Amino acid sequence: MRVHVADHPLITQKLSVLRDKSTPSPVFRQLTEELVTLLAYEATRGVRVEPVEIQTPVTTTTGLALSQPRPLVVPILRAGLGMLEGMVRLMPTAEVGFLGMVRNEETLEPTTYAERLPMDLSDRQCFVLDPMLATGGSLGAAIEFLFQRNAVDVTAICLLAAPEGLEALEKATEGRDVTIVLGALDERLNENGYIVPGLGDAGDRLYGTV
Ligand code: URA
Asked: Do the interacting molecules here have an ipTM over 0.85?
């Protein structure tokens, strides 16, 4: 598993506003989109492309086009939805699938409660959107779900992560081609499973406490 922590003053500045508990939902949503676009720039560094010949007004030259099959973007419901617009702004031709993960309160295992994805992901590059990599349980299960459908490689984009979650994910994805792109790596998880210093509950801050 490769981990890339974005190191850019604009990313840290936008994250600082997200962390501030007085930032209201509309600003939180807007900044989340902007952050994802910046992180997506880094996360798509390995996107598959192929040469194409193009005619400029002056001459013929060679450029690049995204390869087929199109990359698949997968927001994890609910908070990952707040990252979708920022991602497809950068890669408008990507296909979008949806995955809803919830923790079974008896087994504590993450289970899938909603899924709208192609059955066969052979040859597909997948980009998973999940703002908070806390314990790594649901993200690990989502990534495994995509590999079970034969995804080639999976890149997850997260705003924040805890070291505990990264460690768990490293074990859960052993032997898989996985890249994690982060806005910041925070200090730790607290006893309630929140990232510290973190930004609170990302879903609630995006959408309210429904
Ligand atoms: N999920 C969140 O939304 N926030 C955290 O701090 C941890 C998990």
From this structure: yes
